[in-house]
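Hey team,

Filing this mostly as a record. A colleague (T.K.) asked me to run one chain through the structure pipeline before their review meeting, and I want the input and output archived in the tracker in case anyone asks later how it was produced. No errors, nothing strange. Just documentation.

Input sequence:
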Amino acid sequence: QVQLAESGGGLVQVGGSLRLSCAASGRTFSRNVLGWFRQAPGKEREFVAVITYTSGNIFYVDSVKGRFTISRDNAQNTVYLQMNSLKPEDTAVYYCAAREARFSIPSKNPGAYDYWGQGTQVTVSS
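Output structure:
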């Protein structure tokens, strides 16, 4: 059974940092497009960052550019999201997601992803 499991969330003060991890099990995701999304209470799920399997294409939502960094370790079947200079508006449940390997194009649309983790809460306090 394919599973994605996020970790690393928590409570942090404004300006602080967190590093989220998403480990895949059940199969390898080394050739899959991997993405991070977030959902705040009462809001739709929002694209945060995406990375292709060679790490050759990386995209971010404008609101996190310069503060967040997505990376992956294909040998460890893990994708990361380093979050710096956190703001209260970054508070949300963060999800990692994977596209099927046959879809090599990175996407900002949650509907394009086939596998999802359970999410990890990030709370930024002011």
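Quick notes for T.K.: The mean pLDDT is 94. The radius of gyration is 13 Å.
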